[in-house]
Amino acid sequence: MLLKPFSGVLNSQARAAGNVDDQRRRLLKAAGLGGALAAVGGGTLLSSPASAMRTSARIVIVGAGAAGIAAANRLDQSLDGAEITVIDRRQRHLYQPGLTMVATGIWKTGKVVDRNDRYMPRAVNWIQDHVAEFDPDANRVVTTGGQVVPYDYLIVTTGLKVDYEAIEGMSPDLIGREGIGCVYDNPEHAERTWRMIDHYTTAGGVGLFTRGPGGIKCAGAPLKIAMLTEDLARRRGTRESLEMIYNSPGDGLFSQPDMDDFLKQEFPSRDIAINWHHRLKGIEPEARRATFATPDGDIRIDYDFIHVVPPMRAPDPLGNSSLAWQDGSFAADGNWMEVDQYSMRHRRYGNVFGAGDCVGTPIGKTAASVKAQVPVAVENLLSVIGDRETVASYDGYTSCPLITGRGRGILVEFDYALNMIPSFPFISPYREHWVPWVMKDRMLLPAYNAMLRGRI
Amino acid sequence: MAFSFFGILAVLLETIRPWLPLIIAVLVIDLALTVWLWARGGRSWSSGRRPALFAGAVIGVAAFFLAPWLTSARFSDLSGLLDWMAVFGGSVGVAVLAAVLLWPLMTILFGANARARG
Has residue A326 been placed in a domain? Predict the structure, then answer.
C-alpha cells in the first residue's frame, strides 16, 4: 500500500524529514549478540543490529500497553535524535493473554503482572497521565492534567474500553459476586472470576457463557473460558451437575471458518448447548437472571454462573475524536480508530499511525496482531519521516492458542482472508495437541516480552 | 508469522531470563571444575563418561515421565506424533545436557587416576 504525504501534515513532516541525514546512518544500539550477552540482567539482553535514522522528529505514542511499548522500543532502536514521548498513566503492565489462565485457576495473578518501567526505553520521555483530547488538526494531544503535548508524528495505541454500561445492571464491581465472572480488563477481574468458576464447578447449576457483539479483544477468550470450565468440572467429577449454555450474539462461534466448524461440533460433543443470536442485554444480579436480545424478542434465563463479555469500543477520548472512523461498520461497532488496514496509517491524517486493540480493522485485537502490526506501523512511520514511500503491509495476521482443556489446544493463526497461516508448519492448526498448550503455558509470555523489547 | 533466527534467540533468552542467575552459576561451577581438572591432570576423562551418561539417562527418563505433569497436563493429553516426538526429543535434550554438565563432577567422583593406572 503506497501512500503519499497528506497536505495537512506537510509542514511538520518536512521539518522533521529535513533533519534526516541518511548519509550519517550508523549502527546505533546494535550491541549485537556478543555485546548483548555481556549485558546479562540488564534491559538489553539481546539487540539485533539496526541502522539508526537521524532526525529531530517529535513522536508521541499514546498508550503504554503491548503495542505502545513495542513501538517505543522499535523507534528508540531505529532513530537517533528523535524526541519520543509515551503518554500513559499506568505503571502496571498486564500480560492480558494470560488472563484466561488466571480466571480458570491455572496461573496465579502475579504471573500476568509486570511493570512498564522494565520495558520502557531509557531515552523515552514518559508522561504518566492519560490523554483527554486528541487534536490531530493541530498536531497535539492534551492530557487529563491539562498538559498540551505537540507532535510531528503520532502513534495511537490506547487499547480499548470494555463497555460494562452497555449491559443493563452490569458493573465491574459485580465481578466475583452473585455468580458473575468476566475475564477481561485486569487480573483482579480474572481472579474474582476464578472464585466464581471454582464454586460453580463444585456446586453445579446453570452456567451461561456469553460473548459481546462486534469486535472484542481476544475473541477466543469466551470460548476458552467455557471449555476450560467444562474441563475442570469433568476433572472434578461434577460435570453432570452442570448445565452449560454458550450464548452467541450471531450465528457463529469463531471468525475463522475451519475453527468455527470445529467448535460447532466440539461444544455439542461436550454437552455445551449453544444459543444462536443471543446478545446479553441486561443482568439482574440479585435474582441471578440474565436478559438476552434475540430475533424473537427478549428472553430471560436464570443462572448460577454467568461469564459476562460486554461489548468493547475505543476509549472515549479517541472514539469521540476525529481520528475515529466517522461512518461505516467500524464507527457503528465501537468508534474504532480509522487506519488503512494494511499500512496501519491513518487514512486522513498522514502523520498518524495506529496499532493494537484500538484500531478498526476487520480482525486483529490480539497480542499476536500487535506483534505483526507494530513493525508495520513503525516501518511505515520511518518511511514517512525519511520521505520515502510506505511499503510495509499488515496482512491481518492474528493468532489464538485455542485452549480446549487443561493440557491441550489448537494453535490457530490466520489472516484477513481467514486463511490459516501457521508459523510452524509441523503444528496442525486443525487438531488438538499438547504442544500448543505448552506454548501457551510456557513460551508465549517470553515471546510477548521479546515483542515488548522490540526484538520480534 | 515466521520467526527470524534472532527472534527465536530473543524468545529463548526471555524464557530463561528468570533463571539466568542460576544457569550462570551452574555454568561457572561446571567451567571451574573443567578447568581445574585440566590443570591438575592425572584423572581420566573417559572414566567419568560412563557415570555421566548413566546419570544423564536417568534424568532423561525422569524428564520423559514428568514432562506432561510439569506442564499441568497428563499423558492422555498427548496426541499424535508431534506431541510424542516433542516429549521424546525434549527428554533426550535434557539427558544430553545433564550428561555434559555432570561429566566433570563424575570425573572427580569416579574418575580413576590416569597416572596411577599408567
Answer: no
State the sign of the Cα–Cα–Cα–Cα dihedral A99, A103, A108, A109.
positive
Return d(Cα A295, Cα B59) in angstroms, integer: 61
C-alpha cell, B7:
527472534
Spatial distance between the Cα atoms of A425 and A413, rounded to a whole number of angstroms: 11
CA A212: distance to chain centroid?
A: 15
Rounded to the nearest angstrom, the minimum Cα separation between B29 and chain A is 18
Give whole-number Cα distances, A343 to A233, A347, A379, B70, in Å. 45, 9, 9, 42
Query: Is B50's Cβ below 8 Å from some Cβ in A?
Result: no
Total domains in chain A come to: 1
Q: Say if residues A284 and A258 touch (Cβ distance below 8 Å).
A: no
Judging by DSSP bridges, how do beta strands A58-62 and A92-94 pair with one another?
unpaired
Q: Within 10 Å of residue A300's Cβ, how many Cβ atoms? A: 12
- B13 in reach of chain A (CB within 8 A): yes
Q: Which domain holds residue A281?
A: 164-312
Residue at A299 is within a domain: yes
For cell 506424533, the residue is: B81
Nearest chain B residue to A424 by CA distance is: B2
Domain boundaries of chain B, sorted by first residue: 22-117
ipTM of the predicted structure?
0.90
What is the structure's pLDDT at B111? 75
Task: Flag whether A322 is in a domain.
Answer: no
Q: Answer whether residue A440 is part of any domain.
A: no
Identify whether A358 is a catalytic site residue: no
The DSSP letter of residue A338 is: P
Instruction: Supply A139's cell numbers.
Output: 498536531
Give mean pLDDT, residues A368-393.
97
Give the pLDDT score at A101. 98
| Helix boundaries (H) for A172-241 | 187-203, 221-236
- Chain A residue closest to B9 (CA)? A46
Of A22-26, B94-98, B100-104, the range with the lowest mean pLDDT is: A22-26
Q: Tell me the CATH number at A229.
A: 3.50.50.60
Q: Measured between CA atoms, how close is B105 to chain A, in angstroms?
A: 26
> Which chain B residues touch A43 with a CB distance below 8 Å?
none
Question: Which of A275, A449, A120 lies closest to B17, judged by CA?
Answer: A449
What is the DSSP annotation of B57-79? HHHHHHHHHHHHHHTT--GGG--
Average pLDDT rounded to a whole number, residues A189-195: 98
Q: Kindly give the interhelix angle for A367-385 and A444-452, rounded to the nearest 10 degrees.
A: 20
Mean pLDDT of A299-312: 98
> Of the listed A69, A106, A218, A402, which one is catalytic?
A218
